[in-house]
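[recover] target loaded
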Protein backbone atom coordinates (compact mmCIF):
# COMPACT_ATOMS: atom_id res chain seq x y z
CA UNK A 1 0.00 0.00 0.00
CA UNK A 2 1.40 3.40 -0.94
CA UNK A 3 1.33 6.41 1.38
CA UNK A 4 -1.35 7.99 -0.82
CA UNK A 5 -3.50 4.84 -0.64
CA UNK A 6 -3.06 4.71 3.14
CA UNK A 7 -4.01 8.38 3.40
CA UNK A 8 -7.12 7.83 1.27
CA UNK A 9 -8.09 4.75 3.30
CA UNK A 10 -7.48 6.16 6.78
CA UNK A 11 -7.91 9.88 6.20
CA UNK A 12 -4.57 10.54 7.93
CA UNK A 13 -1.87 12.68 6.36
CA UNK A 14 1.34 11.03 5.20
CA UNK A 15 4.32 11.03 7.53
CA UNK A 16 5.95 14.44 7.71
CA UNK A 17 9.62 14.76 6.84
CA UNK A 18 11.90 16.60 9.24
CA UNK A 19 12.03 19.88 7.35
CA UNK A 20 9.99 22.30 5.27
CA UNK A 21 9.93 20.19 2.09
CA UNK A 22 8.04 17.14 0.90
CA UNK A 23 9.93 14.33 -0.82
CA UNK A 24 8.64 15.58 -4.19
CA UNK A 25 9.86 19.11 -3.46
CA UNK A 26 13.28 17.81 -2.41
CA UNK A 27 13.54 15.84 -5.64
CA UNK A 28 12.61 18.94 -7.67
CA UNK A 29 15.22 21.05 -5.86
CA UNK A 30 17.82 18.32 -6.34
CA UNK A 31 17.05 18.20 -10.06
CA UNK A 32 17.28 22.00 -10.33
CA UNK A 33 20.67 21.90 -8.57
CA UNK A 34 21.91 19.16 -10.91
CA UNK A 35 20.77 21.04 -14.01
CA UNK A 36 22.34 24.30 -12.79
CA UNK A 37 25.66 22.57 -12.05
CA UNK A 38 25.76 20.68 -15.35
CA UNK A 39 24.59 23.60 -17.44
CA UNK A 40 27.07 26.12 -16.09
CA UNK A 41 30.08 24.24 -14.76
CA UNK A 42 29.60 26.14 -11.50
CA UNK A 43 28.60 24.49 -8.22
CA UNK A 44 25.24 25.53 -6.77
CA UNK A 45 24.21 24.88 -3.17
CA UNK A 46 21.14 25.64 -1.10
CA UNK A 47 21.01 26.16 2.67
CA UNK A 48 17.64 26.43 4.40
CA UNK A 49 17.69 27.15 8.11
CA UNK A 50 18.50 29.72 10.74
CA UNK A 51 21.18 32.31 10.05
CA UNK A 52 23.11 34.05 12.81
CA UNK A 53 23.51 37.83 12.88
CA UNK A 54 24.97 39.39 10.90
CA UNK A 55 23.08 37.39 8.29
CA UNK A 56 25.38 38.16 5.34
CA UNK A 57 28.50 37.20 7.29
CA UNK A 58 26.96 33.87 8.31
CA UNK A 59 26.02 33.11 4.68
CA UNK A 60 29.57 33.97 3.60
CA UNK A 61 30.99 31.60 6.25
CA UNK A 62 28.75 28.81 4.94
CA UNK A 63 29.91 29.58 1.39
CA UNK A 64 33.59 29.39 2.39
CA UNK A 65 32.97 25.87 3.77
CA UNK A 66 31.93 24.56 0.34
CA UNK A 67 34.33 22.29 -1.54
CA UNK A 68 35.16 24.87 -4.25
CA UNK A 69 34.05 28.29 -2.98
CA UNK A 70 35.52 30.23 -5.93
CA UNK A 71 33.26 28.37 -8.40
CA UNK A 72 30.29 28.10 -6.03
CA UNK A 73 26.98 29.87 -5.65
CA UNK A 74 25.13 29.54 -2.34
CA UNK A 75 21.48 30.36 -1.85
CA UNK A 76 20.90 30.73 1.90
CA UNK A 77 17.28 31.02 3.01
CA UNK A 78 15.96 31.45 6.52
CA UNK A 79 12.17 31.28 6.25
CA UNK A 80 11.54 31.99 9.93
CA UNK A 81 13.73 35.10 9.82
CA UNK A 82 12.45 36.08 6.36
CA UNK A 83 16.03 36.36 5.11
CA UNK A 84 17.65 35.46 1.80
CA UNK A 85 21.29 35.73 0.80
CA UNK A 86 22.96 34.74 -2.46
CA UNK A 87 26.73 34.37 -2.16
CA UNK A 88 28.91 33.94 -5.24
CA UNK A 89 32.56 32.94 -5.29
CA UNK A 90 35.28 34.89 -7.11
CA UNK A 91 34.94 32.96 -10.38
CA UNK A 92 31.15 32.59 -10.16
CA UNK A 93 30.73 36.35 -9.59
CA UNK A 94 32.29 37.06 -12.99
CA UNK A 95 29.44 35.12 -14.59
CA UNK A 96 26.69 36.16 -12.17
CA UNK A 97 27.17 39.82 -11.27
CA UNK A 98 25.35 41.20 -8.22
CA UNK A 99 22.71 42.81 -10.45
CA UNK A 100 21.63 39.41 -11.78
CA UNK A 101 21.75 37.85 -8.31
CA UNK A 102 19.44 40.62 -7.08
CA UNK A 103 17.00 39.97 -9.93
CA UNK A 104 16.92 36.28 -9.05
CA UNK A 105 16.41 37.20 -5.38
CA UNK A 106 13.40 39.37 -6.28
CA UNK A 107 11.78 36.46 -8.12
CA UNK A 108 12.51 34.14 -5.22
CA UNK A 109 11.04 36.56 -2.67
CA UNK A 110 7.88 36.88 -4.77
CA UNK A 111 7.43 33.08 -4.72
CA UNK A 112 8.24 32.91 -0.99
CA UNK A 113 5.63 35.60 -0.34
CA UNK A 114 3.08 33.38 -2.08
CA UNK A 115 4.00 30.51 0.25
CA UNK A 116 6.08 28.55 -2.26
CA UNK A 117 9.49 28.02 -0.64
CA UNK A 118 10.55 25.14 -2.91
CA UNK A 119 9.29 26.86 -6.05
CA UNK A 120 11.14 30.05 -5.13
CA UNK A 121 14.39 28.16 -4.70
CA UNK A 122 13.90 26.39 -8.04
CA UNK A 123 13.11 29.68 -9.79
CA UNK A 124 16.22 31.25 -8.29
CA UNK A 125 18.44 28.36 -9.34
CA UNK A 126 17.07 28.49 -12.87
CA UNK A 127 17.55 32.25 -13.19
CA UNK A 128 21.07 32.21 -11.73
CA UNK A 129 22.08 29.35 -14.02
CA UNK A 130 20.55 31.13 -17.03
CA UNK A 131 22.52 34.28 -16.25
CA UNK A 132 25.73 32.29 -15.76
CA UNK A 133 25.38 30.67 -19.16
CA UNK A 134 27.30 27.65 -20.38
CA UNK A 135 30.76 26.89 -19.10
Amino acid sequence: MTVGEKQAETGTPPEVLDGPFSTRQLLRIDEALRLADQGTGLVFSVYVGGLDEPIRAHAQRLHRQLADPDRSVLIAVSPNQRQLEIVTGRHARKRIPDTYAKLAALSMVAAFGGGDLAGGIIIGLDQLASHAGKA
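[recover] notes: The radius of gyration is 16 Å.
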